[in-house]
Every structure is written in structure tokens, then in C-alpha cells.
Structure to design on (453 residues):
């Protein structure tokens, strides 16, 4: 099958208003990736080499977005929304190039499984002219019904055009269709608009092809393949299904999730075996975790690289550019951004590390802050191997602390510290014997005098 050429046409021109949004529907995200990009990924995973995106309203924004998730896709504009067959024909120029297989998918159906696409392509390879991916449901209302005779598909009837008897059919059109490239245009050009909605229905090519003696079949897949998103409640439902799939995949690949339903992955999270993730952890985009790491509860992690056996959280925030090397530790209420924490270094409590390097084995005391920003520019802090930064220190960047440098607690460090030096950046303590008691007496007399007066 892999030798067969394949064009995927993704329809994304129909704009519902039920998202109540300034953003085109198919650009709303699931696991941080626009839903239409999930469809693109599925098409690519099913071996589809070429991509046509049919867009309409919000076309400029769509075009721009498509450059990021489907740079090779060719965009076609459907000027008027005249139905799904009409939308497919907007990509006529692409279809005319000649492909073995044509896949038609909807941009608002993000949970499409590449295996469902591959199964449909296989049926084309076996000689079918049209393959419809269907699903069974107890509640078929709103879906086109698949009408079969002797194991062959003879028609798809849209809900609005169904007889009462046909409405009882529970085998439905999932919206995914595979069409033999050499027949596609001929079939599409025969579609008319005499139906309840007055639209050109893609689904009509089933009846047209069947009547002309072509082999037309249904291929059954799970309901998720057909889950179309029309509002934000359905968006959340799809997110839930996506997350459940991903958690399972992570666990089966050797990751321990103690409370899986509280862990949220991004579309691109990479996480190695023997990593343990505690409850309530959020992964934003761009996270890579090697093996054997511990991610403690309530951590929020995005754009971070975490090497083997690191320890993160609880309540840690790793922001883009956080790069933790082997056995590094970032503890509770710490934030790390654009910084390398080298092997075995510890940033354990209530600390902000931004635009910095922390050398191997260094220890950063509680409450340490890298003051990296003056309101205009960002500056770098370099902390050498084995350095010790006492609690509650402010490191005013640009500044560096040499290897083995030692910073006294509560310091404000504005000048670089050489290797192995001890730096105090605070006033020295003065202790005055008996002065505490004297002070109390003075204050209490003053207060009594004030009351009398
Ligand atoms: C469609 C199917 C129905 C199936 C259901 C599954 C048709 C005629 N009906 O119905 O059998 O059970 O999906 O969810 O295909 N679009 C365009 N241009 C248009 C019209 C639609 O790009 O002119 C796009 C929409 O953006 C959407 C997709 O095509 O992504 C489906 O259109 P929609 O109106 O949602 O079809 P349904 O009524 O849901
Ligand atoms: Ca729909």
C-alpha cells in the first residue's frame, strides 16, 4: 500500500458560530495543538503524502496557522459554503494531479485514528471505488445513515432526508471518506443539490457510485473517529478522550502515573520509562523527559528538558528553556526559566532562576533570586560548579560566581565572585549586650506617658 500515492483533503471552510469565538473553529486546540493539525498528523501517519486544506471564512488566519502545522499543504478557498462535495471540489486542481487514493476528512474531527484511515486505504487498494468510515451509536441523531444491501453500501442518507424507517439505522457516517483517485472527479461532478438543505453533499457519491456498479463499502471504526467539535463542551470532551488515550500510552510505555486522570499531557510531550509522575501535573508544549525522573505533585512544566533521574517539585514551575541535567533537583515553589541546571545541582526551595547556568553540584539556598531583568533587558547569571549560594540571596545579573564560590545568606551580589571566594553582600551583624532590655523599658515608659497625657 505504501507505494500508492495519496492526497488528503481536509475540509475546514464551514464556520459554526457556536464556539462563540474570534478564532476560527478548527484552530481551537486539543492538547495545545489546533484540532485541524491533529487531522493533518493523522493523515501523515496514514501515509498520505500530499495535503489540501479547504478554507473559507477566516482564511488569512487559517493560512498563517497552516504554515506552522502543515507547511507543505496547499490551501484552497471555498468562497461559498455550498456543501461538503462543493468543498472537496474547491481542491479540484489538486485532485486533477492524479492520485491512487484520496482521503476526505473534516478539520473539526480531531480524534481521527490513523489506523481508520489506513484501513480505508487498504480497501481502496483491494478495489473499492468509495470507502466510508462508519461507526455505530445508540444515538444516531444528526448523523448521515449508512444504508447497506448485501454487505455493500448503497447510499448515505442525511438525517433531514431520512424516512422514519431509515432514522432507526444506527450505523452512521463518521465523515471520513476514501475515494479512488481515478474516479473521484467523475463522481463528484455528478453530485446535485436536490436535498433538504439544498447543499452539494459529498455523501451522495455513494449512491452515484453504487448505481454505476462501482464497489462501495463501509469500514467500521470507533465513535471517536467521528467526534465533530461544534462547541466548547465538545472541545472539552475531545480533550478528555485525547488525554485518556495519551495517559494509557504513557503508562504502557513504562511511565508511572499515580493518579492518571489528574495529569495533562501536551501533544508533543516526550516522557521516558521509569519516570514517576505524581498527581496534578500539567505539561505544556515542548517537554522532554528522559528516564527515571520524579515529577512531584502540582508541578507545571513547559518547554523544559529533564534528564535522567531528576527530581522536580512538588509545586515546581519549569518554563521554556529550563534544561535540567542528570540528577538535578528543582524543589517546591521554585521557578526555572531559560537556565541550565547541571548535573546534581540543587535548587530546592522558593527560588527563581532565570537566564542562568548553575554548575554541577551547586547548591542554591531557599529564596535565592536571579535578578535577571531591569525592566528593559535580560541579563545572565553564571554559577560555577560546586558553588554554595546562601538562602535569601539576590544575584543581580549580569554576574558570575566562580567554582566553589560561597555566598553568605541574605546577600545582594552585584559584583562577580571568583572561584572559591566567600562573598558577603550585606551589612555585618552587630550584637549589643543588654540593649534589648533597655529598649523595651524605654518604649514601655513612652507608651505609658502617652496614655496619661
Ligand atoms: C457530515 C456528513 C454526515 C456525517 C457527519 C459526521 C455530509 C453531507 N454529511 O454532516 O453524513 O454523519 O458529517 O460528523 O457530508 N464544510 C465545508 N464546506 C461546506 C460544508 C461543510 O468546508 O460547504 C466542512 C465543515 O467545515 C465541516 C465538514 O465539512 O468540517 C462537515 O460539514 P458539516 O456541515 O458539519 O456536516 P454535518 O452536517 O455534520
Ligand atoms: Ca459536523
Amino acid at each position: 500500500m505504501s507505494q500508492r500515492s495519496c492526497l488528503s483533503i481536509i475540509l475546514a471552510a464551514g464556520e459554526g458560530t457556536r464556539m462563540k469565538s474570534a478564532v476560527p473553529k478548527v484552530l481551537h486546540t486539543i492538547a495545545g495543538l489546533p484540532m485541524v493539525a491533529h487531522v493533518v498528523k493523522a493523515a501523515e501517519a496514514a501515509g498520505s503524502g500530499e495535503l489540501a486544506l479547504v478554507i473559507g471564512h477566516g482564511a488569512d488566519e487559517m493560512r498563517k496557522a497552516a504554515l506552522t502545522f502543515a507547511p507543505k499543504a496547499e490551501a484552497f478557498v471555498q468562497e461559498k459554503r455550498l456543501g461538503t462535495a462543493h468543498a472537496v471540489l474547491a481542491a479540484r486542481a489538486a485532485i486533477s494531479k492524479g492520485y491512487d487514493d484520496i482521503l476526505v476528512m473534516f478539520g473539526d474531527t480531531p480524534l481521527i485514528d490513523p489506523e481508520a484511515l489506513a484501513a480505508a486505504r487498504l480497501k481502496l487498494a483491494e478495489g473499492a471505488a468509495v470507502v466510508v468510515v462508519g461507526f455505530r451509536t445508540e444515538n444516531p441523531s444528526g448523523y448521515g445513515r449508512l444504508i447497506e444491501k448485501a454487505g455493500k453500501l448503497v447510499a448515505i442518507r442525511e438525517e433531514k432526508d431520512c424516512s422514519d424507517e431509515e432514522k432507526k439505522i444506527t450505523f452512521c457516517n463518521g465523515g471520513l471518506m476514501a475515494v479512488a483517485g481515478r474516479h473521484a472527479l467523475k463522481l463528484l461532478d455528478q453530485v446535485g443539490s436536490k436535498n433538504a438543505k439544498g447543499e452539494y453533499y459529498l455523501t451522495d457519491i455513494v449512491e452515484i457510485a453504487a448505481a454505476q456498479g462501482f464497489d462501495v463499502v463501509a469500514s467500521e471504526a470507533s465513535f471517536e473517529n467521528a467526534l465533530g467539535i461544534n462547541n466548547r463542551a465538545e472541545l472539552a470532551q475531545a480533550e478528555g478522550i485525547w488525554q485518556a488515550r495519551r495517559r494509557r500510552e504513557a503508562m504502557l510505555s513504562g511511565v508511572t502515573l499515580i493518579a492518571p486522570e489528574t495529569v495533562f499531557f501536551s501533544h508533543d510531550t516526550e516522557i521516558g520509562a521509569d519516570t514517576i509522575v505524581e498527581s496534578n501535573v500539567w505539561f505544556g508544549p515542548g517537554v522532554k523527559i528522559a528516564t527515571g525522573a520524579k515529577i512531584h505533585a502540582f508541578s507545571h512544566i513547559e518547554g523544559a528538558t529533564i534528564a535522567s533521574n531528576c527530581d522536580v517539585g512538588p509545586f515546581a514551575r519549569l518554563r521554556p528553556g529550563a534544561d535540567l541535567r542528570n540528577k538535578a533537583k528543582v524543589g517546591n515553589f521554585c521557578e526555572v526559566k531559560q537556565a541550565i541546571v547541571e548535573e546534581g545541582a540543587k535548587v530546592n526551595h522558593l527560588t527563581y532562576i532565570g537566564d542562568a547556568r548553575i554548575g554541577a553540584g551547586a547548591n542554591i539556598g531557599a529564596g535565592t533570586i536571579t535578578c535577571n531583568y531591569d525592566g528593559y533587558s535580560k541579563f545572565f547569571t553564571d554559577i560555577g560548579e560546586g558553588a554554595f549560594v546562601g538562602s535569601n540571596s539576590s544575584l543581580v545579573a549580569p554576574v558570575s560566581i566562580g567554582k566553589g564560590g560561597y555566598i553568605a545568606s541574605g546577600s545582594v551580589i552585584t559584583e562577580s565572585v571568583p572561584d572559591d571566594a566567600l562573598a558577603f553582600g550585606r551589612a555585618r551583624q552587630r550584637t549589643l549586650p543588654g540593649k534589648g532590655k533597655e529598649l523595651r523599658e524605654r518604649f514601655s515608659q513612652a507608651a505609658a506617658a502617652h496614655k496619661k497625657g
